Amino acid sequence: MYKLALSAVISLMFVSAGLTTASVAQAATAQSAASKKAQVKKVKARQTVRLSAPRVEGRVVKRITRVNGRKKVSYQRLITAAPAFATMGDLAGLSATRDPLDLKSNVALVLDQANSEVLFEKNSNIALPIASITKMMTGLVVVEAEQDMDEVLTVTDEDVDRAKFSSSRLRVGAQLTRANMLHIALMSSENRAASALGRNYPGGKPAFVEAMNAKARELGMSDTHYVDSSGLSKMNVASARDLAKLAMAAYEHPMLRQFSTDANAIVEANGRPMQFGTTNRLVANPDWSIGLQKTGFINEAGRCLLMQAVIEGRSVIMVFLDSKGTQSRVADAGRIRKWIEALKPATLNIGGGSAPVYSTGM
């Protein structure tokens, strides 16, 4: 009786409130559904679904995502490490070479710029892919050809990379002066700019590549061969010793020194300003005095760096090829710098002698 009376009272309470037990259940269900719907909507608002994976070969990657049901395209500078990939140096067994500085580069060469004395070498005679270090030879050919640097060049479909599908901020139809093309090719490693420079050489790309190889022969770069002006092909190869010769020759041109060592610059494309930055963070480091530099990366080459710098008042040329890790080539440059700073001047072969301070490799 008590339970029946209690049920009656509760029922009367719901009725008096204008609600029945069934309506309460319906209201609760509706509220729960609305809450779940709101939560799902909130999660979807925060969720970004990746529709395509970025390609790791380019310095700028294209990402296609979907946010709140809408397709979004964005471009980002690649900062994540590339997936494990056997480089040409690894395949040649160079990774087995050890050195006292524990460099992460399979190939290294350091020499005194004043007298070409070798201070440090590791597998320096092995020809390997050099990636975008190629662009330093591209720049050398352009400036020595004395082409009109104010001539406006147009990016065409021929300049689009269909080998490694690297991205570019220069759209087909973009117009820049030859000087600006060269500037961002050296500073930001712009592949389409490097391609446009070669294509606008008298005789086109084939003649430009032949001029690159002819210049290499002139400089005594016997281990070097070029097939394009950008370095995207793994067939662009050179030894570290050859690249040191290239650095010596390129350093003689103020334009190459300036363009390659600018930390950032604003250039005009189709009359509109575009800002570009360097691919080498050491350039903006006040602790470094860098007179010429070029970085490079493709999977087959690993991380590469060509650089002229002043250390302890002495100008040196440094070459690092097939380095592992996004910052490893820069870290290797730092290791070499500390090593040179710690050495006594008498041990640096300055003023005579032919034996390097350290030499190893195949």
TrEMBL record:
Question: What Enzyme Commission number(s) apply to this enzyme?
Answer: 3.4.21.-
Catalytic residues as annotated in Swiss-Prot or TrEMBL: S132, K135, S189
Per UniProt, which keywords does this protein have?
Cell shape, Cell wall biogenesis/degradation, Hydrolase, Peptidoglycan synthesis, Signal
Peptidase S11 D-alanyl-D-alanine carboxypeptidase A N-terminal domain: residues covered: 99-324
Keyword Cell wall biogenesis/degradation attributed = yes
Cleaved signal peptide residues: 1-27
**What residues bind substrate, as annotated?**
K294
A molecular function (GO) held by this record is:
serine-type D-Ala-D-Ala carboxypeptidase activity
Q: Which organism is it from?
A: Duganella phyllosphaerae
Using the UniProt record, name the top-level EC class of this enzyme in a single word.
hydrolase
In the record, the note on similarity to other proteins reads:
Belongs to the peptidase S11 family.
One GO term of the biological process aspect: proteolysis
Instruction: State the superkingdom.
Output: Bacteria
Q: Which InterPro entries match?
A: Beta-lactam/transpept-like, Peptidase_S11, Peptidase_S11_N
Q: What protein does this entry describe?
A: D-alanyl-D-alanine endopeptidase
